[in-house]
Amino acid sequence: MIATIHTFGRDLKWNPHIHCLIPELIYSFKKDKIKTFHHFNFTKLRKTFQFEFIRLIQEAGGLKKPEEKNRLYKDHPKGFYVYAKFKSNDNDSNDASAKKK
């Protein structure tokens, strides 16, 4: 996986966001073959991103009261939004992409 953090959007306005590239093909050294990779757990990605983002905000001195942190988890029980495309129809955890089809 390759990840990069962008602080500005195309129009150069402040728009912090992260881009992640995840391969769809994986080389297996044991079998000396390339195999496809179709599943990525988007729910786990959203919740992990939410947890790490909140942790970093706390480390930086934000969210001083536990109620502030708890409110973020309560208001966003599925995690923070992660825009990710997928090809298979069996990944029902990516509701945003399914609606676009």
Describe this structure in words.
This protein is of the alpha+beta class and 101 residues long. 34% of the residues lie in helices and 23% in strands. Strand 3 (25-28) and strand 4 form a beta hairpin. The two termini are 26 Å apart. The strands form 2 sheets. A two-stranded antiparallel ribbon has the order 1-2. The chain has a two-stranded antiparallel sheet with strand order 3-4. The protein has helices at 42-59, 66-75, 95-100; strands at 2-8, 14-21, 25-28, 33-36. The protein is extended. The model is unreliable at 90-101 (pLDDT under 50). The longest helix has 18 residues, at 42-59. It is built from 3 helices and 4 strands.
List the helices and strands and how they pair.
Blueprint: E1 2-8, E2 14-21, E3 25-28, E4 33-36, H1 42-59, H2 66-75, H3 95-100
Antiparallel strand pairs: 1-2, 3-4
Features:
101 residues, alpha+beta, extended
**Percent strand:** 15-25%
Secondary-structure element series: EEEEHHH
- Which geometry do the CA atoms define? extended
Helix content: 25-40%
- State the low-pLDDT regions, or none: 90-101
Helix count from the secondary structure assignment: 3
Mean pLDDT: 78
Q: Major beta sheet, specifics? A: 2 strands, antiparallel
> What radius of gyration results from the CA coordinates?
17 Å
Distance between the termini: 26 Å
Q: Class by helix and strand content?
A: alpha+beta
Q: Major sheet: order of its strands?
A: 1-2
For the secondary structure, the number of strands is 4
